[in-house]
Specification:
Mean pLDDT: 82
Number of strands: 13
Strand order of the largest sheet: 4-5-6-7-13-12-11-10
Shape: globular
Oligomer: single chain
Number of domains: 2
Order of helices and strands: HEEEEEEEEEHEEEE
Number of helices: 2
Strand content: 25-35%
Structural class: alpha+beta
Radius of gyration: 20 Å
CATH class of the largest domain: Alpha Beta
Amino acid sequence: MLVPRGSRSAQNHMLKIPSLVRALITSGGRTAYTFDWPRVAKPSEIRLDLATGSIGILRFGDHIDCAKPFGRPSHYHRHEGNGCGLLYFEQSFYLEFDEHRALSFVTFHLSPSSGDDSSRFVGRSVQLSNGAVISRENSPDDISRLFGKSVDGAEDEEGMSLGHKAHGFVVDVYFTRAGQISEIDIFADKNEA
């Protein structure tokens, strides 16, 4: 369909093309699923509630579209197989969605990551629905008081990890050698399904 250059329809098409091109360029040739999501100027506080399986407004099993209120992620990527992930550097969390685009895995980054300012997590505390706050300074004992006794653990040259089970979820907490929490991974406990 030919559209005259000065028409309103032509102007609408001209405005959409740059954002689509930008999405194609920044997603390695694939259209990023979230390229038209709004930018969020100030990250909202996100509360973790394992009893309901929710991270703010988003619940485990929710479709990726339910994450739209968090705003456009810093980075969207597809997995080699199925599924995709959303990185929110400013809010310091990562959301992973399975092949059905349902939320299946969450990582909170409590410590700033290395890299330039545009591609690193800033590091934020995690707010829990009961009012507790998990920060980098919490100890393994603090985490056990929140999530129960650890059910497994591992140690290597970078630090240690402790696994906890709570409300049908596995909560893996990673500590640096200096004893600070670097990240927390959360996913459904397949053994309780």
